[in-house]
Amino acid sequence: MNGFKSVFKRELKSYFSTPLAYVFLVIFLVLSTFLTFKAGFFDSRHASMQLFFSNLPELFIFLVPAIAMRLWAEERKSNSIELLFSLPITTIQAVLGKFVAAWAMLILALALTFPMVWTVAYLGNPDWGPIWTGYAASILLAGAYLAISSFFSALTRNQVIAFVLAVVFCMVFLYASSPTALDFLTGRMPVGVMEAIESLSFQSRFESMQRGVLEVRDLAFFLLLGGGWLWANVVILEERRGQ
Amino acid sequence: MIEVKELRKAFGPIVAVDSISFAVGKGDVLGFLGPNGAGKSTTMKLLSCFMPPDSGTANISGHDIRKEPVAVRQSLGYVAENAPAYDEMTTESFLKFVCDARGLKARTRKEALGRVAEMCAIGGVMHQPIGTLSKGYRRRVGLAQALVHDPDVLLLDEPTDGLDPNQKHDVRKLITEMAARKCIIISTHILEEVEAICNRIIIIDRGEILVDSTPKQLREREHGSLEEIFRKLTTQHLQLDLKGGAA
Hints:
- The structure holds two protein chains of two kinds.
- Chain A is globular.
- In chain A, 37% of the residues are buried.
- Chain A has one domain.
- Chain A starts with a helix and ends with a helix.
- By secondary structure, chain A is an all-alpha fold.
- The longest helix of chain A has 28 residues, at 128-155.
- Chain A is built from 13 helices and no strands.
- Helix content of chain B is 42%, strand content 25%.
- By secondary structure, chain B is an alpha/beta fold.
- Chain B contains nine helices and ten strands.
- Chain B has one domain: Rossmann fold, CATH 3.40.50.300.
């Protein structure tokens, strides 16, 4: 347990001991608010957060890999990974410590959007269910993106490569059920495979949660997918260390 | 305290460590000597459980490196080549992190920090980011992190490489002071270092142990300075390899 706690604390502190946390938080808050108002928040005349949440999957595609690209790539480049694993810390503890610290940063960023909730509550009488499930969906989506990005950060010591690969894979998972992707796959793949690809999509699950529908299978999907990528992260770190 | 048995590690076709065996006890300072690329750092990485061996094993303070890597890491202090650390952290927060990871809490941690700050003479840079430290201080911070839990076994990979003569002197003095209570392996290619602080010497080349002796015995047996002996052994090895290849 010492291993997980110490890595978690160190990581979280390191975000705030450099400008990284502040730059990230400011950019996230400015962009998420700007996109909400640009999409016609006032014109819609609805006391809801739907416009705010609907931008997040695409905004996170860039911001989550940006925060995660350094997680392992930097450790490998500076060779501090050799120091880290000379301490009595298991690979699983280190991967989880870093993941949870970065996730906590993303949750903090989401928590700091509370003025948006105030605004909605002040202007009208919102349905609170979809607001809470929307936040829950955003936290889960951020976690899934983060697990993917952390894996790619462990794959290379070059942060730019880690970033680009993570963005591409997050996009694949987000757009798997988009009409363009499905049109392209129709006729090229058996129906079973197409349905399997479609079911891996983040978008449809995120949208239904954001509308207030919280289903166990959606929760399980995000948890299993995130867990799977983190497990791959552990495996790749152990494999690469011997090289 | 350290017992290495038939330890082997290859990277593709290159055998970095070729079934080496040796033992080191308390009070020993073993100079692990060899030219660049001889397999010194790989051996250190295997012993510190950073990477697993292909075959063979080692026992450190009663723990097997293959079966109990976390217990091995708990029982030893390791300074990797170039003393890697987290540059954005201050010396103090870095050492606190190491204490946390090693399970040192509250008072024990405070005592440990005071002790290593004094031993390694880093009291003046405790609040400075590690990235801004000179090479000498960086090494000393690296040494301090390896000493916070007062381990019985110390593995030091080229601890004085790139330091000025005064800094080298300080690090060697520190090692000599600790020597009687610990079991220390120093990987190096600096011969004067071995003369100054080691009571045991292993010369390794291309992953194989060429000599396992004491500096004094080796000088008497081979009739020459350590530098001459080192050159003779490692180039002889090279020539044998070339002849073997030609045949």
